[in-house]
Amino acid sequence: MTDTPVTVAFDGDLALVTVDNPPVNALRQAVRVGLVDAVKAVEESPAKAAVLLCAGRTFIAGADIREFDMGPLLPHLTDVVGTIEMCSKPWIAAIHGTALGGGLEVALGCHYRVASPSAKMGLPEVHLGILPGAGGTQRLPRIVGAAPAVEMITTGAPVSAAKAKAMGLLAEIVEGDLTEGAKAFARSVMDAAPPRIDRAPARPAPTEAEWGAMRKAVEKAAKGQMSPVGCFDAIREAFRLDLDKGLEAERAGFMILKNSDQSKALRHAFFAERAVAKPKAIEGASPRAINRVAVVGGGLMGSGIATSLLQAGIPVTMIETSDEAAAAGVGRVEANLASAVKRGIMGEDAKAKLMGMLTPASDYAAAAGADLAIEAVFEEMPIKQKVFAALDEAMGAEAILATNTSYLNPDEIARGLRNPARVIGLHFFSPAHVMKLVEIVQAKETSAEVLATGFDLAKKMRKVGVLSGVCDGFIGNRMLSAYRRVCDYMMEDMRAIEPIDAAMRAFGLPMGPFQLMDLAGLQIGWATRKRLAPTRDPKVRYVTVADAICEAGRFGQKTGAGWYRYEDGRTPLSDPWVLDVIEKAAEAAGRKKRSFTADEIQRRAMAAMINEGAKILDEGIAARPLDIDMVKLFGYGFPRWRGGPMMHADLVGCDQVLADMEAVAADDPGSWVVSPLLRKVAKDGGFGKLNG
Ligand code: CAA
User: Fold this and answer.
1) CB-based contacts of 548: which residues, under 8 Å, 6+ apart?
2) What is the spatial distance between Cα 287 and Cα 282, in angstroms, rounded to a whole number?
3) Ligand 1 atom 53: residue of nearest CA
4) Could you report the per-residue pLDDT of 181-223, keeping only the tens digit for each?
5) Residue 34 pLDDT greater than 70, yes or no
6) What is the pTM assigned to this prediction?
7) If phi over 0 gives left and psi between -120 and 50 gives alpha, with beta otherwise, what is residue 420?
């Protein structure tokens, strides 16, 4: 990082102002100071216009998010933008890469904008729980109108250069050299006074009814997140207030959102999403090239994994038990890709090309040339062991052997095989071509190089890889089982499931625990309970309702019934039969009926989940709290605006979580162990410090 990240050079009648603040030219304080100084230098020079350029891979990608927690560092960006706008000579922003957030706001302060054809422009602040705080909500609607501004700002989605030109956001798209094109454009406008954005309220204003409809749509899409609505309200002010008053209102809205827990959580998610790919365990290790993967199993999981690999450009050999089963697997991949074509994600040509990279086989010998094999067969130890033994025989001793198991121990699956350093868990989530999470499981002897290859592969597959140690259920499913257990206890005590599902939806999860079980299917959970039954601690309370539901052949949505009934195959309907089963189970267990409010349900559910997270950290299964947060965000629909369970604990206060967990544990003595780490962080300031 240079200390003079903004330089001014002169070229004939033009000043060339260059921002050089790698990696993404974020607007840290020194850049803001440099821009104000540059305006002064331009004013004092004989130059007739200024071209604003950026060095490196992109135009300014926004405010420096790391400065958000540092208190006010002057000058404010909004004043910097205003200073550029008030320059007596025209400024031309020359945009390449991405002009995002504060970056686009700087460009909006310039009097003209030109861009490379591949440039993108957006105001993604909504994803950080804030609103564009440097004039974006006031200047954009004055340039492009109400509806396009609402769309861009409340969704945060960037627009292409072509779209920006059509919206009136760009004066010109520069084919060829951007600097030269921008300079030529500047010379064509330098003799005229710089055009200024109208300071009167924006026009034409939508009607009250149109504003009402737009706000409703924004609220619905926001699903509990405050910033889209905050953005909308700020944009509306552009149509009521003159520019200066509108900027004041925008600043006030920005400060409220910036200080909100939601914004803190979303900023945590932004940095955690990047940090999760860089665990200490792979420091200094180089990933191996993966030129072909053998996927064993062509069922739902195997075909999803194969689809995702093909989409990453990696050829796949799909091994099944027979030619017919392999053909069925290929059919599933084809259906996945066909749905991508239908959704406009790829064309028929691309689909045909990917299908050409898929080789079906019914013999392990076909795995011989692959650098990696991923087994996705039935979740039974002897079956998985057989598959690994066959792969060991068919493949080179260096080829990486990965298991997609959700619960089983990879070390046991690979017991007795050559070279255990190449054994790894790659736990995908269903549907594997859609879900972004992959738990990268470090077995006892997995080498750093093999782990790094797992992370590299996840990135190529556009997935979020999270490092996990070995335990039953790894990070995600182990947390899920603690959450389900506490929900089961509340279910039996309340004799109800719907208030629990409703409370967790209100918390921000896409569905409640019972709905989720019905969607995922109840068989795997049942098999796991049976597997663990012999070693189950008799002191731990056990709720039998799920077993009774499975014994009745109700395995969830796919069978038309589970915790709910499904007459249309999709809509959960309350079922008196289930309530009766719960009533009987509760009676047999001697449980007194009691009720919990939605707040109590949420707090108990979160306490059990966070307590399990603390144990997972303590045991070294997860390296950092942020790893747990990313598992829940990308694999389980945990609301991003809550940052993940461990961040949520810090936001509500770990002392409160501890008190909630102690209450849960006191209700069922012997059933819970309150994590010593939770007790510790409750005293000394939360989980955040453990993120390093
Ligand atoms: N502030 C601080 N650091 C940032 C940053 C920002 N705005 N944007 C990116 N970075 C950092 C990343 O954390 C990452 O750091 P590490 O290498 O240490 O992990 C590094 O820059 C490179 O980023 P990516 O790995 O994401 O690189 P990429 O090429 O994949 O993506 C990008 C580049 C599209 C610009 C992406 O980084 C991005 O979307 N950045 C955020 C853009 C954004 O949200 N801007 C709005 C900021 S808020 C604002 O501007 C408020 C306002 O109105 C005043």
Assistant:
1) 581, 585
2) 9
3) 132
4) 999 999 999 999 999 998 999 999 999 999 999 999 999 999 9
5) yes
6) 0.93
7) alpha
**Intervals of CATH 1.10.1040.50 along the chain:** 476-691
| Whole-angstrom distance, CA of residue 10 vs CA of residue 73 | 30
CATH 3.40.50.720 residue ranges in the chain?
A: 290-468
Kindly tell me if the per-residue pLDDT of 45 is higher than 60. Answer: yes
Strands 400-403 and 372-375: parallel
| Ligand 1 centroid from CA 678, angstroms | 32
Residues designated catalytic: 105, 125
pLDDT at res. 2: 52
The model's confidence at residue 87, banded by pLDDT at 50, 70 and 90, is very high
For atom 32 of ligand 1, the residue with the nearest CA is 61
Q: Does the domain made of 6-259 have the CATH classification 3.90.226.10?
A: yes
Q: What is the pLDDT of residues 522-574, one digit of tens each?
A: 998 898 889 889 999 999 999 999 999 999 999 999 999 999 999 998 899 99
Length reported for the chain = 692
Task: Report helix, strand or coil for 189.
Answer: helix
Q: Where in the chain is the domain with CATH 3.90.226.10?
A: 6-259
Q: Which fold has domain 476-691?
A: N-(1-d-carboxylethyl)-l-norvaline Dehydrogenase; domain 2 (1.10.1040)
Give the residues surrounding ligand 1 with Cβ less than 6 Å away: 23-24, 26, 58, 61-66, 77, 98, 100-102, 105, 124-125, 128, 132-134, 274
> What CATH fold (topology level) applies to the domain 290-468?
Rossmann fold (3.40.50)
Q: How many angstroms separate the alpha carbon of residue 627 from the centre of ligand 1?
A: 20
Mind listing the pLDDT tens digit for each residue in 242-287? 999 999 999 999 999 999 999 999 999 999 999 999 999 999 999 9
Helix (H) or strand (E) segment spanning residue 91 = strand 91-95
